[in-house]
Amino acid sequence: MIKRRLNFNGRVNQNSAMKTSSELKEEEVEWEMRPGGMLVQKRTDNLDIPAPNLRVRVVYGLLRYEISVNSRATFGELKKLLTAETELQPGDQSLIFRDKERENGDYLDLCGVKNRSKVILMEDPQSKERRFIEMRRNAKIEGIHRAISCVSMEVDKLAEQVSAIEKSIANGNKVPEIQITTLIEMLMRQAVKLDAISAEGNARVQKNVQGKRVQKCVETLDVLKVSNARVKPVVVTTKWETFDTPPTTSHWEFFD
Length: 256
Known about the structure:
Blueprint: E1 2-6, E2 25-29, E3 31-33, E4 39-41, E5 53-60, E6 63-70, H1 75-86, E7 93-97, E8 100-101, E9 118-123, H2 125-170, H3 177-195, H4 202-230
Parallel strand pairs: 5-9
Antiparallel strand pairs: 1-2, 3-4, 5-6, 7-8, 7-9
């Protein structure tokens, strides 16, 4: 609490004498700190009496809102109510009343806001620019994740073919070499796609995981290529069984 000393040295009437120093009065004035560091005189309203609600008309571009708010609320509290309607965060809002932008700590009633008063809502230009930059950044990240996901699905399909070839060679079946060579080329194409993706953070981790999968499949195929060359083709021969034709005899029947 800050005390202010007031000196009243005026005349009572034209014939009165000057007041002495013992007649000085001391008035106590309470101050409060508002958000933002502004020192203002504290409200002297009777807080025991409930304050009425106001219906404030808010204009936001072509949109119109009617917000019910306590008359003793601040413009900062009004911004919080508008967030639910406009999806604009309080820090991105600017409230104009009577051609003047109001601070968050300004009280509605002390600024002259009454029932059905009009308040203009504007989006802060800097916040709009920040949001645009954030949208572009999110779109870029989403595109990177989508590209890595496409590569991951292709690698899944190729990995299944690698497993099938590995199982076939393990069973002693020779696989055409062109099949292995083609599969290696397809995997290397996916590796080139991954190298072209510029990723950071979590996307970079996913990119490295897929890169290691491609490398492992290629190394497996290189080993299988050597093992496949050692597999001897199985020659299938057919052995035919011959049967002797039984002699045929004709029996003639005679009729009288």
